[in-house]
Design goal:
Helix content is 77%, strand content 0%. The protein is mainly α. The chain has a single domain, classed as LemA-like domain (de novo design (two linked rop proteins)), CATH 1.20.1440.20. Helix 2 runs antiparallel to helix 3.
Length: 187
Amino acid sequence: MQYKFHWWHAVLAILVVLVAWLWTGYNGLIRASAEVSGAWAQVETSYQRRFDLVPNLVNTVKGAAKFEQETLTQITEARTQWLNAGNREGRIGAAQGFEGALARLLVTVESYPQLKATEAFRDLMTQLEGTENRIATSRKDYNDRVKEFNQLVSLFPRNIVASMFGFAPEKYFESVAGSEVAPEVKF
């Protein structure tokens, strides 16, 4: 028995290859998107730890020093913005505002050497330092996942699949302009 080639065999083979390509491309994008979401969840967890820890630090500072009300207000407002943010961009903005207020708090602490000697303050500062390290690591991991995802949705031919299914590049978590300059607190 001899096999007879029909034109529809070629069409069928092309369709099978096309469906397999779409399937693997779509699944790769879903996997990468899930990794971005997982990395973002780690960022949120780290920031939530910071937002829960800093009020204790503020209360310790308030108890030992004449504390600036403006800094306390900014910390409280930034924490509220974080809790009320409905999306990733809102949380990034709240975190950036909080970082400025936290930096002013830490500069304020430098003016009170007796405060640094208290055990409660030292414990809180150790926890805060660990939290800041977690935040830095989480942000780096998030940005790494975003980079990988953005490459997937931008590079040919997967960009065709990405545009067909509505995948768009994600935003990086970037530092606020001027964050490289230490805040100045005057009494």
